[in-house]
Design goal:
There is one protein chain. Helices cover 31% and strands 19% of the residues. The strands form three sheets. The protein has a 16-stranded mixed beta sheet, with helices on both faces. It is an alpha/beta fold. The protein has 16 helices and 20 strands. The C terminus is likely disordered. It has two domains: 314 residues, NAD(P)-binding Rossmann-like Domain (Rossmann fold, 3-Layer(aba) Sandwich); 188 residues, NAD(P)-binding Rossmann-like Domain (Rossmann fold, 3-Layer(aba) Sandwich), CATH 3.40.50. The longest helix is centred in the middle third of the chain and has 27 residues. The protein is globular, with a radius of gyration of 24 Å.
Amino acid sequence: MTSASVPVPSSAELAGRTAQASLAPESWGVLSAPRGATDPTFAARVTAPAVPVAPATPTAPATLTAPTARAVGEALPVTRIPLRRFVIDHVTLPAVPSWDALVAAGRASSLAGTRFVVVEGDLGIGLALSSLLEQAGAQVRIVSADNVEAVAQLEAEPGADGLFWVASAGSPASVGSGLPEAFGALRAAALAGPRRLFVVTGLGGDLGRGGDDAELAPGVGLAGLVRTLAHELPDTEVRLVDVHPKEAPRRIAERLLAEMFDPAAPVVVGYRENIRITPELRAVELAPDGRGTAGPAGLDASGVVLLTGGARGITARTAVALARATGCAVELVGRTPLPDGPEDPATVAALDAPALRRALIETGVRRPAEIEKRIGRILAEREIRATLAALGEAASSVRYHAVDVRDGAAVAAVVADVYARHGRLDGVVHGAGVLEDRLLRSKTPESFDRVFRTKVDGAGALLDALRPDVGFVVLFGSVAGVFGNRGQVDYAAANDALDVLAHRASARLTGRVVSVDWGPWGVEAGAAAGRGMVSEELAREYARRGIGLIDPDEGVAALLRELREPVPGAPVQVVQMCGDAASFTSRPSSAGSSSAGSSSAGSSSHA
């Protein structure tokens, strides 16, 4: 771990290079972007909604210049879709017929001769489920989630009529039942091609939104994973049912079978105190408070804010906005080491990637991979210098900590250091994340682990290290966790898990805790082409589907406005996106669709 106070040049000295700074966070996928780009865009082939939306009066779009840009930096004239704020309610669903009623009506007889696989945990739910299935005439194979041969056993059961993964409803001590460890076996189960895939979690029946110790439960993040599988596996009925783990195993098993007989059920359902629920989006706009870009209440030049995600992207823009609004001290955490000196004079005049390419070739660099690697490093270092320069002019102090947020001990040490030097910590923004988009068939457990742990372990380490009196905590999430997204099984799971962690933390911390699930971000009008850009074709496809790109200034202003809300009654989870749920769950046209795992969907990080 490296921490350093940062002496930086003025922002005026770096103005010629700030156009290269990426302003887009890592929310949504890198599914149609320049090679090596972090492009928070939604370019999925989506077939069915994973989260319903409450009816709302649509907002009439205004025709303006979009913040997206052509490859040469020219703005595209497309319809600008306003940024909208949503909260997520749990709405009551109609009850389904009980298992006993289905048996009495003869409907259970349809299971005779079918073949099921049940992945058991440690609560006996799988045994109860297997017994009921066998009584109905089905053949059942039970696989233990903690068996080292679980992946091979699941691969050996292709084309089953149904697979129930009930292991994740078990206790925290259940080995191999939760993410990220369970991904390998879950992947094998899904790719075996069952007609039905039911995942069961034990987060309390409310999907972990009740503020219990949900971060320890194996089911955290699985709703986001299941929503993505529902997009990627059109021939499989994919569902998630959340229950209270203290319910009787037979009662849970009966509910699961009853759910199986409801073909119109949402992808995600919970049972809380016998009430059947599902999440639903509801548009709730905040009234203007006349304070413009003012910071959170109570934060001033004596305060301290810590932000993960480094000195780049939307996290950096948020840090600068907070510093300019309040004069607070800023502590940045990122994986990228600080530049160890000024830029090489050979490249300093090259202001964009093509110019850098020419400059590097002139210096004797010939290998394309090495050229692209150096371009990425140079642009990243320019962005870091520009961010630190802006913070140096606005913040009371700036310190950068070179830390990987997956290292819980290192994160705890950073927080302890901040408390030791300042005696306080007023706010935290967790924006760290990494993207390695791939379809399920190409996603490795190791890659899943990196993406998931960067978001989830980083958030957990931060939350555990905070004193209860922190003024606010913001977790940067993504609509990928809310809707699922083709090619982002890991990222969707991680962001869904962030929402659960936020609800738990809100019960312990006295200040505002909010997980903000962002839609796709754009860039400043007139910015040079480069990292984080959206192609003209994809921008027009978004517009056709009613999806807009968040203007960075507007998005940061919306965050500051959110943090000025009084804490009592403020929602713990907020969705900010340019569009509505129907836009994000409609099928794109062939012109704008793309699938993860293509050559343009390479691994990117945001640190």
